[in-house]
């Protein structure tokens, strides 16, 4: 086409009267963003670009810190404006002191709406490596096997192992969001009855929608809860990545299709974002001098293999690995253990056999910690396989047992004397993925 990125943007900027509002570097950056969006759409990497109105436009940035939008002496300077930046005076972990001591490459202004108020933030793009907090230890040079699912994650290292839910802190926010969405749907149906068929379906075609004052208020609350959800997810991803790096900075995991996860477990993937977690873990591992190594799941077949060399298909509902050779372990933890011994995209059975004697106690301690946590909280997903673990360890929960999610309603079997919920019987309910 012969159009340079930002070229037409500059011409519109000169003709549209924005010369006094935006500088050349900011306009060139905006043009580059628009060009990249069109280019990725042409190569089928992203959806069709959409025009952003002034209300949806939330970020602008410069090209360098030498001219235009720049950061000088604790303030953002731009087109004659000098905006002082509020910095945390405590700086508990020394993150901001390390950032301000680094060279600033360029500045980005971000507008966010928090609790109904518009706030502006200055993001500094710095040169160098991020600050490593003293509380976040990294086991350099050690290998970690990782098994991640739509809502769970298992990691096995040389010294420890764990199995946990991914972004477990999002459950309360998800309930609040669903409640507000149901209220918005009721309000929309009450104020627009002519836009729906008698059976409740929306009529096709362009419809005129009336949004009441209550609907707009609920929409603002929904935006605030979704902002909290995104912030909580980002914080949970960072905490989980630090927990994995505490086991080792060389992480081995299966190369999964997270788009396939979306087709089967849409809501869970939308809320917990396992693909985003892997990308964050990849960046943190690279900053710590390690890497994330992904291998083909078809070649290794970790969920079917055993240390004895046998391969047997198991249904997804079978959450415990049993083999005729006597090996018995939780399915996700055992897959993570096998992933630790993958070399050159092939499972090394000799390494796995020699390391299993030392790894079996680690997996057992991980399940004991998980069982204790489920007893205290009264809830655990069925994918953890705690029912099988308690049957093997012969240590039922004290008093009322933990509620366990199950893909079906009530499992087959006869309750012990005393009724359900007694004598280690597990109360089950259908999960929300």
Could you tell me the number of beta strands? 18
Task: Give the % helix.
Answer: 25-40%
Please tell me the overall pLDDT.
84
Distance between the termini: 46 Å
Widest beta sheet: strand line-up: 9-8-7-10-11
Count the DSSP helices: 12
Secondary-structure-based class equals: alpha/beta
Question: Whole-number radius of gyration?
Answer: 27 Å
Largest sheet: 5 strands, mixed
Strand content: 15-25%
Poorly predicted runs are 395-433
Shape: globular
Order of helices and strands: HHEEEEHEEEEEHHEHHHEHEEHEEHEHEE
Short description:
This protein has helices spanning 7-15, 24-42, 95-100, 171-191, 213-245, 258-264, 266-272, 274-287, 297-300, 331-339, 349-377, 386-393; strands spanning 59-61, 70-72, 75-78, 81-84, 104-114, 117-126, 143-148, 152-156, 161-165, 250-254, 291-295, 320-322, 328-330, 342-343, 346-347, 379-380, 403-405, 427-429.
What secondary-structure arrangement, pairings included, does this model have?
Layout: H1 7-15, H2 24-42, E1 59-61, E2 70-72, E3 75-78, E4 81-84, H3 95-100, E5 104-114, E6 117-126, E7 143-148, E8 152-156, E9 161-165, H4 171-191, H5 213-245, E10 250-254, H6 258-264, H7 266-272, H8 274-287, E11 291-295, H9 297-300, E12 320-322, E13 328-330, H10 331-339, E14 342-343, E15 346-347, H11 349-377, E16 379-380, H12 386-393, E17 403-405, E18 427-429
Parallel strand pairs: 7-10, 10-11, 16-17, 17-18
Antiparallel strand pairs: 1-5, 2-3, 3-4, 5-6, 7-8, 8-9, 12-13, 14-15
Helix pairs in contact: 1-2, 4-5, 5-8, 6-7, 10-11
């Amino acid at each position: 086409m012969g159009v340079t990125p930002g070229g037409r943007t500059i011409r519109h900027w000169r003709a549209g009267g924005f010369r006094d509002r935006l500088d050349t570097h900011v306009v060139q950056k905006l043009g580059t963003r628009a060009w990249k969006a069109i280019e990725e759409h042409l190569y089928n990497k992203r959806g069709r670009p959409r025009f952003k109105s002034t209300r949806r436009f939330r970020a602008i940035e410069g090209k360098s810190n030498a001219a235009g939008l720049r950061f000088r002496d604790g303030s953002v300077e731009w087109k004659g404006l000098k905006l002082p930046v509020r910095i945390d005076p405590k700086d508990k972990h020394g993150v901001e002191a390390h950032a301000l001591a680094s060279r600033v490459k360029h500045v980005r202004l971000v507008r966010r709406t928090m609790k109904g108020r518009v706030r502006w933030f200055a993001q500094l793009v710095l040169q160098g490596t991020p600050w490593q907090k003293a509380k976040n230890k990294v086991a350099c040079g050690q290998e970690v096997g990782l098994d991640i699912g739509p809502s769970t994650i298992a990691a096995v290292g040389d010294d420890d192992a764990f199995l946990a839910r991914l972004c477990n802190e999002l459950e309360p926010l998800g309930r609040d969001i669903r409640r507000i969405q149901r209220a918005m749907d009721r309000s929309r149906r009450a104020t627009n009855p002519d836009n729906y068929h008698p059976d409740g379906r929306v009529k096709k075609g362009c419809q005129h929608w009336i949004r009441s004052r209550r609907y707009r208020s609920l929409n603002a609350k929904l935006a605030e809860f979704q902002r909290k959800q995104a912030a909580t997810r980002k914080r949970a991803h960072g905490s989980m990545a630090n927990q994995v790096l505490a086991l080792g900075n060389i992480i081995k995991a299966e190369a999964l299709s997270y788009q396939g996860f979306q087709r089967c477990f849409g809501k869970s993937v939308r809320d917990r974002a396992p693909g985003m977690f892997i990308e964050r873990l990849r960046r943190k591992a690279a900053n710590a001098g390690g890497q994330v190594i992904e291998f083909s799941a078809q070649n290794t077949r970790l969920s079917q293999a055993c240390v004895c060399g046998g391969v047997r298909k198991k249904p997804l509902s079978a959450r415990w690995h049993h083999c005729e050779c006597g090996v018995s372990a939780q399915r996700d933890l055992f897959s993570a253990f096998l992933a630790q011994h993958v070399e050159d995209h092939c499972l090394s059975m000799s390494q796995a056999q020699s390391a299993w004697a030392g790894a079996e106690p680690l997996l057992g301690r991980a399940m004991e910690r998980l069982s204790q946590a489920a007893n205290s909280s009264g809830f655990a997903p069925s994918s953890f396989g705690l029912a099988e673990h308690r049957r093997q360890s012969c240590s039922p929960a004290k008093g009322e047992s933990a509620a366990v999610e199950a893909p079906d309603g009530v499992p087959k079997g006869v309750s012990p004397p005393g009724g359900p919920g007694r004598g280690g019987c597990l109360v089950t309910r259908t999960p929300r993925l």
